């Protein structure tokens, strides 16, 4: 009886694999075809390919994701569950409506199993809604809003690299501790700026500092002269600027020329290494900010950054490294689950503790899907400290994951 | 009170810059009747040109001022000869669309070549200091830009209204047929005037480079403020552009001082009020408005 059953099973398996082999054109992937939807795993990169965030993530994140795919294949070889892996990319132009349509296209037409990156908070929230509706994965790297893991969290959405809370608690608290008690905050009056100001004020006050002025500015804005005069009027120790991209550059140049710079420290809410590189370290003398990852922090980061530079001719921002890490861990989860079915992959990711090139003491929190990890307060190097072209940051302090991130929000209900 | 004086000075410094930047727009409209939407893109080209010049040859701000301005003049001449002139006889809307297209083209071209991040550019040597009078203070560079702008605006105004060349140019554009009949070579004057307007945009870009972000998109928003300036001043009026430039600079500075994120809205409120009261702008002629 037992033998008969075994024989029958073997026969089924053999004929089954024959059929599959026939369908798959005799190729390798056929053996796992039943477990992988459409016979292949598709990673979709959705980000800004032409606008202000192009340099800090953009097309080079595709290179990072392809590096993850290559590393995954090299690691598992014949044992890889996902044998056929495709990376597709699209430009969302930082607009939520375009992000929404592109996400639908990626999930439905390109058969994407996961969407990665998506900077710009409003666009990220639109994609999270699509992920929830289509029951497909979404790992956000480029956007900062805490709503992704708060009121608008869902089972299929993960937030990988940073959020506004972590940016504030890192640099905000550390600056207060080093003597910067009184603050003026200048922020662009839209969702990101308001969110950052709220997070920063809370972080500064938690650490015992005081925010004397919160100055709203238009967005975009070219001229900051009078805003700077106003911010300096209350004689603060620190001026915090929450603008990004071109506006941040405008502010920093005019701040340096205003004469306020000699008496007041500057703290920047969100900055990428690409910003420092494009302007030159002189403009940022001693400016501090929170970085999620720095390429020249240790040998492991550097080794990866070297491989990245060989392909792109630039050093990676934390967004590039974050895209690699997210793609790699997704593929690992597919490997562990033996399938790319979303629910099974999510189960693998939830609660996972990760130490990789990007995440140190990382954990994919099961409660809200926020991926928490150690982050860094960094200072822009002075010109004589810079030894090579992209070596622009000096890590002042490592902020442990549990201090850097807020506890899981009670607003999040999966 | 100190704060108010400080804001006023900052507003005047900014106003000088707005006046200069809007001047080219006013000249081109006043003389050719073309609403040059590519003015913002040419301003961007001026700033990017200065940054590229610095990067490629090491030539700094003082060299960039004449070099970039002349290069932009040539660019303007080519633009007029090859493109704009073919549409001059048609509805002004055609040239508006053409220059809008040129804007998109130039912005994407710069993005393709130089990316989207800001290019590096620093203050010129000699203008890094500050001037303090009592408790108010301005950077030397702000003062330089304001003074430079005022002198240039005056020179252009004198050139167009008080000299023979100015008279010919105005006659040629006011009534091309009759001017031709009087033996004036009209075509000869239209091209350099257009080039001159574009050169002014490029010059404003060079002046901006040390104090702002230099990137492909820097003109896209700036052009909107410039349009507000020329509309307030009266389309095509040079004196109007200068006065309105200062007015808008002051409104923006007071707005930043007292109204926070509404500082830009106030510019457009001012524009709306001016249009309601004087549809052709503060110094505009009636026919310019039609």
How is this structure best summarized?
Chain A is of the alpha/beta class and 414 residues long. Chain A has helices at 2-23, 60-76, 96-108, 121-134, 164-177, 191-206, 225-233, 245-257, 273-279, 299-312, 318-337, 342-349, 401-404, and strands at 41-47, 85-91, 114-117, 137-140, 157-159, 182-188, 210-217, 238-241, 265-268, 288-291, 353-354, 362-364, 371-372, 375-380, 393-399.
Strand and helix layout:
The complex is a heterodimer of chains A (414) and B (290).
Chain A (H helix, E strand, L loop, with lengths): L1 H22 L17 E7 L12 H17 L8 E7 L4 H13 L5 E4 L3 H14 L2 E4 L16 E3 L4 H14 L4 E7 L2 H16 L3 E8 L7 H9 L4 E4 L3 H13 L7 E4 L4 H7 L8 E4 L7 H14 L5 H20 L4 H8 L3 E2 L7 E3 L6 E2 L2 E6 L12 E7 L1 H4 L10
Parallel strand pairs in A: 1-2, 1-3, 3-4, 4-5, 6-7, 6-8, 8-9
Antiparallel strand pairs in A: 10-14, 11-12, 12-13, 14-15
Helix pairs in contact in A: 2-11, 3-4, 5-6, 11-12
Chain B lengths: L1 H31 L6 H19 L3 H22 L9 H23 L15 E4 L2 E4 H23 L1 H11 L1 H6 L4 H23 L9 H16 L4 H21 L4 H15 L8 H4 L1
Antiparallel strand pairs in B: 1-2
Helix pairs in contact in B: 1-5, 1-8, 1-9, 1-10, 2-3, 2-4, 2-8, 2-9, 3-8, 5-6, 6-8, 9-10, 9-11, 10-11
Q: With helices defined by DSSP (H or I, 4 residues minimum), what is the helix count of chain B?
A: 12
Please give the domain count of chain B: 1
Give the overall pLDDT of chain A as a whole number: 90
CATH topology of the largest domain in chain A: Rossmann fold
The chain-level structural class of chain B is: mainly alpha
CATH topology of chain B: the name is ABC transporter involved in vitamin B12 uptake, BtuC
The order of strands across the largest sheet of chain A is 2-1-3-4-5
Order of helices and strands of chain B: HHHHEEHHHHHHHH
Shape of chain B: globular
Radius of gyration of chain A: 23 Å
Largest sheet of chain A: 5 strands, parallel
Please give the largest β-sheet of chain B. Answer: 2 strands, antiparallel
**What CATH first level of chain B would be assigned?**
Mainly Alpha
The overall average pLDDT of chain B, rounded, is 91
Q: Class of the largest domain in chain A in CATH? A: Alpha Beta
Number of domains in the coordinates of chain A?
2
Distance between the termini of chain A: 47 Å
| Number of helices in the DSSP assignment of chain A | 13
Q: CATH homologous superfamily name of the largest domain in chain A?
A: Response regulator
Total number of strands of chain A: 15
Distance between the termini of chain B: 43 Å
């Amino acid at each position: 009886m037992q033998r008969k059953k075994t024989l029958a099973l073997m026969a089924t398996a053999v004929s089954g694999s024959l059929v599959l082999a026939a369908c798959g054109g005799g190729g390798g992937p056929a053996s796992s075809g039943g477990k992988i939807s459409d016979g292949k795993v598709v990673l979709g990169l959705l980000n800004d390919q032409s606008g202000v965030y192009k340099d800090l993530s953009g097309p080079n994140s595709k290179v990072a994701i392809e590096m993850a795919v290559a590393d995954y294949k090299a690691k598992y070889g014949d044992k890889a569950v996902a044998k056929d892996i495709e990376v597709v990319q699209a430009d969302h132009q930082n607009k939520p409506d375009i992000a929404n349509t592109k996400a639908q296209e990626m999930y439905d037409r390109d058969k994407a199993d996961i969407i990665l990156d998506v900077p710009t908070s409003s666009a990220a929230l639109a994609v999270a809604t699509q992920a929830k509706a289509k029951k497909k994965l979404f790992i956000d790297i480029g956007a900062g809003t805490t709503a992704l893991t708060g009121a608008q969290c869902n089972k299929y959405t993960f937030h990988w690299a940073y959020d506004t809370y972590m940016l504030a608690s890192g640099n905000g608290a550390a600056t207060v501790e080093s003597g910067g008690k009184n603050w003026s905050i200048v922020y662009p009056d839209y969702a990101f700026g308001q969110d950052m100001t709220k997070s920063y004020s809370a972080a500064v006050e938690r650490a015992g500092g005081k925010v004397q002025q919160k100055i709203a500015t238009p967005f975009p804005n070219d001229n900051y002269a009078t805003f700077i005069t106003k911010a300096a009027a209350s004689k603060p120790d620190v001026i915090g600027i929450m603008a990004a991209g071109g506006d941040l550059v405008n502010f920093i140049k005019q701040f340096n020329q205003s004469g306020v710079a000699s008496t007041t420290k500057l703290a920047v809410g969100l900055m990428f290494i690409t910003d420092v590189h494009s302007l030159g370290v002189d403009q940022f003398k001693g400016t501090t900010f929170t970085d999620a990852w720095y390429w020249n922090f240790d040998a492991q980061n550097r080794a990866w950054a070297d491989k990245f530079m060989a392909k792109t001719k630039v050093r990676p921002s934390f967004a590039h490294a974050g895209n690699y890490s997210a793609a790699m861990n997704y593929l690992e989860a597919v490997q562990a689950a033996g399938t790319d079915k979303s629910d099974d992959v999510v189960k693998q990711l939830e609660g996972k503790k990760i130490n990789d090139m990007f995440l140190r003491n990382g954990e994919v929190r099961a409660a809200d899907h926020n991926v928490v990890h150690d982050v860094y307060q960094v200072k822009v190097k002075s010109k004589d400290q810079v030894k090579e072209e992209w070596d622009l940051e000096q890590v002042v302090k490592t902020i442990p994951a549990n201090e850097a991130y807020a506890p899981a929000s009670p607003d999040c209900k999966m | 009170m100190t704060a108010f004086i400080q804001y006023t000075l900052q507003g005047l410094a900014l106003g000088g810059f707005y006046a200069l930047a809007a001047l080219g727009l006013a000249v081109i409209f006043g003389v050719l009747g073309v609403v040059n939407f590519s003015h913002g893109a040419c301003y961007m080209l001026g700033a990017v040109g200065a940054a590229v010049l610095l990067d490629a040859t090491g030539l700094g701000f003082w060299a960039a001022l004449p070099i970039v301005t002349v290069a932009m003049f040539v660019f303007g001449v080519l633009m007029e000869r090859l493109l704009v002139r073919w549409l001059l006889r048609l509805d002004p809307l055609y040239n508006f669309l053409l220059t809008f297209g040129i804007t998109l083209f130039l912005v994407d071209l710069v993005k393709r070549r130089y990316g989207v991040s800001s290019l590096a550019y620093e203050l010129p040597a000699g203008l890094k200091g500050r001037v303090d009078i009592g408790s108010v203070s301005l950077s030397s560079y702000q003062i330089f830009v304001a003074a430079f702008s005022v002198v240039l605006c005056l020179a252009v105004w004198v050139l167009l209204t008080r000299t023979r060349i100015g008279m010919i140019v105005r006659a040629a554009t006011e009534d091309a047929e009759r001017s031709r009949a009087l033996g004036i070579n009209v075509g000869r004057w239209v091209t350099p005037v257009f080039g001159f307007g574009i050169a002014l945009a490029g010059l404003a870009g060079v002046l901006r480079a040390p104090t702002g972000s230099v990137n492909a998109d820097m003109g896209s928003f700036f052009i909107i403020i410039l349009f507000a300036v020329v509309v307030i001043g009266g389309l095509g009026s040079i004196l109007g552009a200068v006065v309105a430039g200062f007015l808008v600079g002051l409104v923006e500075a007071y707005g930043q001082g007292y109204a926070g994120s509404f500082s830009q809205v106030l510019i457009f409120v001012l524009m709306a009020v001016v249009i309601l009261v004087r549809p052709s702008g503060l110094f505009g002629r009636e026919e310019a408005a039609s």
